[in-house]
From TrEMBL, chain A:
InterPro entries: AAA+_ATPase, ABC_transporter-like_ATP-bd, ABC_transporter-like_CS, P-loop_NTPase, Siderophore_ABC-ATPase. PROSITE patterns: ABC_TRANSPORTER_1 (PS00211), ABC_TRANSPORTER_2 (PS50893). The keyword ATP-binding applies. It comes from the Bacteria. Pfam families: ABC_tran. Keywords: ATP-binding, Cell membrane, Ion transport, Iron, Iron transport, Membrane, Nucleotide-binding, Transport. PANTHER family: IRON(3+)-HYDROXAMATE IMPORT ATP-BINDING PROTEIN FHUC. It comes from Aquibacillus albus. This is Iron complex transport system ATP-binding protein.
From TrEMBL, chain B:
SUPFAM superfamilies: ABC transporter involved in vitamin B12 uptake, BtuC. Keywords: Cell membrane, Membrane, Transmembrane, Transmembrane helix, Transport. It is found in: Cell membrane. It is a multi-pass membrane protein. CDD domains: TM_ABC_iron-siderophores_like (cd06550). PANTHER family: FERRIC ENTEROBACTIN TRANSPORT SYSTEM PERMEASE PROTEIN (PTHR30472), HEME-IRON TRANSPORT SYSTEM PERMEASE PROTEIN ISDF-RELATED (PTHR30472:SF69). The chain crosses the membrane at residues 12-33, 65-82, 94-113, 119-143, 155-177, 197-217, 245-271, 283-301, 313-333. This is Iron complex transport system permease protein.
C-alpha cells in the first residue's frame, strides 16, 4: 500500500470541473511525472494533492489520513511544494529564504536552532548554492534562483517533494542540472518526487512513473515504456509522434512529431510550424 | 545562515536610533511656548524645579513626548503588518479605514454629546477606537469571499473605497455641527496630538506592551505571508487564520494610536519602508528598526510642528504628511 493516493477526486473552480474522478496512487520513493497538454488539469491536480487549493469531492489520503483533516503544519513536515515560478523574493538573501523552509519545525519566537542551521547548511550544500548564501536572491541567475527555491523545499526535510514545472524558463544546461539534482535526491535519499513537466523526453528520461492526463482524466499511467507511445501521445497531445530510443539512456524518446488536426495534408504541414510552438509551450 | 554583517548593521542602526530618540526628547523638552532651559532639566526631573517648571515639563511636555513616541511605534508596526499581509509596500493603516473610521466615530459622537463636560474627553479615544474597529470589520467582511478567503488586493481596494465613503460621511456630519465642535473635529482630523495627558498614555500603553511583542512573535509567519500564497501554505502556514489575527493586531494598534493623536497618516507607510531598505524584508530584522523609526519620526514631526508657527503650531499629522507625501511619490516613481 502506497503512502499517498487519491480516490474519486473532483477538483474545480465554481461550476467548472478541472479534474474529474481521479483515482491515482503515487509510488513511494520514486520519481513520478505528470504530463498533458495545457489546461488538462495537471497543475490543478498537483495543487490539490498539496492542499494549495481545495477539492470538491473525493479524498486524498496520506499515511492513512485524509489531508483535509490533517493540520497544515503536520503536512508541511511530510510534503514540500515548489510552486510554478514563485515570484521574486524581494530583497531577501539566499540564506534567509532557505531558512524559511524550517517553518514547520519552529516554535515560539522562531530563533534558528542548531538543528535548523545544520539542515539549512546541508540544503545549501546539496543544491550547490552555499557560496551565495549572503547574496540577495534577486541578484542570482534563473537557474541559481530555482536551486534556492529547491533548497528551501529541502530545508523542510520532507519525504515527498512536489514540483510544478521546475524547469520552465531555464536554459537546457540548467534544466538538466535541476532534474539531475532531483534524481540524486531520489536515488541517494529515497525521496518521493512528483513533478509536472512539459518536456516529454525529460519526463521519459527521469521518471519512474508517468501519469498522462487529458481533460482532467487519466489517459494512461505507467513506466515511460508504457506511456511514451505513439497511440498515447496521439490521444493526449493530438500529435503524430515518431518514437525512438535515446542512444545514451536507452529510454523511449519522441524524435519528431506533427500535428494531427486538419484533414488536408498541405494545411497540416504549414500549420505545424506556426502552431507547434504554441501547443507545445 | 543570516549574514553576520547584516545583524551587526541592524544593531548599529538600532543604537543610532535610540540615540536620536533621546536627543530629540531632550530638545523637545526644552522647546515650546514656555521654554524650559536645558541646564534646569536635570534639577527639575530630580524634583528641584519651580512649580511652573515642573508643571510645564511633567504635565505638558513629557506626556506629549511619550504619546507621540508610542503612537509612532504603534503606527509603524501596524503598517509593517499590513504591508506584509497585503504584499504591498504602499499599504498603510489609513488604507484599511482606520483614520476615516475613527474620524466618523468622533464626528458622530460630537453631534450627540456636549463638548464641555470634562470626563467626556476620556471617552473620546474609546469612541475613536470603536469607530476604527467597526470600519475595519466592515472592510474585512466585504473583502472576504467564501471561496478564496481574504484577498489582500481586494482588501486594499475596498479599504480605499471605505475611506472615501467615511470622509464623505464626516463632511455631512460636520456640516450639521456647531462651529466650536467643527473646530475640534477639524483639528482631530489634521492629527493634532490632543490626548496629551498621562491617562491617555495609560490607555495606549497596554496595547503596545502586548501587541508589539506579539507581532515579533509572529514575525516568521509574516515573512511567509509576504511570499506567494502557495509557498506559505506549502511550509505549513494556515494563511486564513494568520491573516485575520494579524489584521486584527494591525487594526488595534493603529486604532489605539490614532484615537489619542488624531488622524496621522504616512508613519505606517514610511517607517517599515525605511527599515526594509536598510536591512531587507526579513521581519525579525527590520521590525525593531521600523518601531524606533516610527516613534522617532512622529516625535520629530510633532516637535518641529509644535514650534514652527507661534502659538498653535502645525498639527503633527500635517507635518508627517508634508514629509510623507513626497516620500510616497518617490516610492511610486522608483517602483515604475
Amino acid at each position: 500500500m502506497v503512502r499517498l493516493f487519491t480516490d474519486q477526486l473532483h477538483i474545480g473552480y465554481g461550476e467548472r470541473l478541472i479534474v474529474k474522478d481521479m483515482t491515482i496512487e503515487i509510488p513511494d520513493q520514486k520519481i513520478t511525472t505528470i504530463i498533458g497538454s495545457n489546461g488538462c488539469g495537471k497543475s490543478t491536480l498537483l495543487k490539490a494533492i498539496t492542499r494549495i487549493i481545495s477539492h470538491q469531492s473525493g479524498t486524498i489520503i496520506l499515511d492513512g489520513q485524509s489531508i483535509s483533516k490533517e493540520g497544515t503544519k503536520t503536512l508541511a513536515k511530510k510534503m514540500a511544494i515548489l510552486p510554478q515560478t514563485p515570484e521574486s523574493a524581494a530583497g531577501l538573501t539566499v540564506g534567509e529564504l532557505v531558512s524559511y523552509g524550517r517553518f514547520p519545525y519552529q516554535k515560539g519566537f522562531a530563533r534558528l536552532t542548531k538543528k535548523d542551521l545544520e539542515v539549512i547548511h546541508w540544503a545549501l550544500e546539496v543544491t550547490g548554492i552555499e557560496e551565495f548564501k549572503y547574496r540577495p536572491v534577486d541578484a542570482l541567475s534563473g537557474g541559481q534562483r530555482q536551486r534556492v527555491w529547491i533548497a528551501m523545499a529541502l530545508a523542510q526535510e520532507t519525504d515527498m517533494i512536489f514540483l510544478d514545472e521546475p524547469t520552465t524558463y531555464l536554459d537546457m544546461a540548467h534544466q538538466l542540472e535541476v532534474l539531475e539534482l532531483l534524481e540524486k535526491l531520489n536515488e541517494v535519499q529515497g525521496r518521493t518526487i512528483v513533478m509536472v513537466l512539459h518536456d516529454l523526453n525529460q519526463a521519459a528520461r527521469f521518471a519512474d512513473y508517468i501519469i498522462a492526463l487529458k481533460d482532467g482524466q487519466i489517459v494512461k499511467e505507467g513506466t515511460s515504456e508504457e506511456v511514451i507511445k505513439r497511440d498515447v501521445l496521439k490521444d493526449v497531445f493530438q500529435i503524430d509522434a515518431e518514437i525512438g530510443r535515446d542512444p545514451r539512456t536507452n529510454k523511449p524518446m519522441c524524435v519528431t512529431y506533427n500535428l494531427l488536426k486538419g484533414e488536408d495534408l498541405h494545411e497540416k504541414a504549414t500549420s505545424t510550424i506556426s502552431t507547434a510552438v504554441h501547443t507545445y509551450s | 545562515m543570516i549574514d553576520p554583517n547584516l545583524i551587526k548593521k541592524q544593531r548599529i542602526i538600532l543604537l543610532l536610533l535610540i540615540g536620536a530618540i533621546f536627543l530629540t526628547m531632550i530638545v523637545s523638552m526644552g522647546l515650546g511656548y514656555s521654554s524650559v532651559s536645558y541646564d534646569r532639566l536635570i534639577p527639575i526631573i530630580l524634583g528641584e524645579g519651580t512649580f511652573k517648571e515642573e508643571f510645564v515639563l511633567f504635565s505638558i511636555r513629557l506626556p506629549r513626548i511619550f504619546i507621540t513616541l508610542l503612537a509612532g511605534m504603534a503606527l509603524a508596526v501596524s503598517g509593517a503588518i499590513l504591508q506584509g499581509i497585503t504584499r504591498n509596500d504602499l499599504a498603510d493603516p489609513g488604507i484599511i479605514g482606520i483614520n476615516a473610521g475613527a474620524g466618523v466615530g468622533i464626528a458622530a459622537f460630537f453631534l450627540y454629546f456636549p463638548i464641555e463636560a470634562g470626563s467626556f474627553v476620556y471617552v473620546l479615544p474609546l469612541v475613536a477606537f470603536i469607530g476604527a474597529l467597526l470600519t475595519a470589520f466592515l472592510i474585512y467582511i466585504f473583502s472576504y469571499s467564501k471561496q478564496s478567503g481574504l484577498q489582500p488586493v481586494k482588501l486594499v481596494l475596498i479599504g480605499i473605497g471605505f475611506s472615501m465613503a467615511c470622509s464623505g460621511a464626516m463632511v455631512i456630519l460636520i456640516s450639521s455641527a456647531e462651529r466650536q465642535k467643527v473646530d475640534f473635529i477639524a483639528k482631530w482630523l489634521a492629527g493634532n496630538i490632543w490626548g496629551t495627558d498621562w491617562p491617555f498614555i495609560l490607555a495606549i500603553l497596554p496595547w503596545i506592551i502586548i501587541l508589539i511583542p506579539f507581532t515579533l512573535y509572529k514575525a516568521n509567519r509574516l515573512n511567509l505571508l509576504g511570499l506567494s500564497e502557495p509557498v506559505a501554505i506549502g511550509v505549513g502556514v494556515s494563511i486564513e487564520r494568520e491573516r485575520l489575527v494579524l489584521l486584527l493586531t494591525a487594526v488595534a494598534l493603529a486604532a489605539a494610536a490614532v484615537s489619542v493623536t488624531g488622524g496621522i497618516a504616512f508613519i505606517g507607510l514610511m517607517a517599515p519602508h525605511i527599515a526594509k531598505s536598510l536591512v531587507g524584508p526579513r521581519n525579525q530584522l527590520f521590525m525593531p528598526i521600523a518601531i524606533l523609526v516610527g516613534g522617532w519620526l512622529l516625535l520629530l514631526a510633532d516637535t518641529i510642528g509644535r514650534n514652527i508657527v507661534e502659538p498653535a503650531g502645525i498639527a503633527a499629522g500635517i507635518m508627517t504628511a508634508l514629509i510623507g507625501a513626497p516620500y510616497f511619490i518617490y516610492l511610486l516613481l522608483r517602483k515604475s
